[in-house]
Specification:
Strand order of the largest sheet: 1-2
Strand content: 5-15%
Order of helices and strands: HEEHHH
Helix content: 55-70%
Largest sheet: 2 strands, antiparallel
Number of helices: 4
Length: 103
């Protein structure tokens, strides 16, 4: 391989690396996750989170969601968070119930 070919390849790789690193910089808005579910009888209210983990935890919380839209929250959790909604829901709401018993 000629010297010019090595230089061109190395420069192209460096530019590609810099472009990839620069893609996360600048004025881009931070990623957010949100939902606002309503049924005929209630609403969760609008909730926005800065991480997917917080979003998924929010979907599980009856306290946060006014005990509303269980089926819609379950579907969103299944589609976006994975895992077993029912088991996670029981764990979260059991701990929320324990916390309010001590208030």
């Amino acid at each position: 391989m000629k010297l010019i070919d090595r230089f061109t390849i190395r420069s192209a790789l460096t530019l590609a690396t810099l472009a990839t690193l620069g893609a996360g910089c600048g004025d881009e808005a931070a990623e957010s996750f949100s939902y606002d579910f309503s049924t005929d009888s209630c609403t969760t209210g609008s909730h926005t989170f800065t991480s997917k983990t917080a979003y998924c935890d929010g979907l599980l919380s009856d306290k946060l969601n006014n005990g509303c839209a269980y089926t819609l929250r379950r579907a969103s959790y299944s589609g976006n968070c994975g895992g077993d909604f029912d088991a996670a829901w029981a764990r979260i709401n059991r701990s929320e119930s324990t916390e309010s018993d001590t208030d």
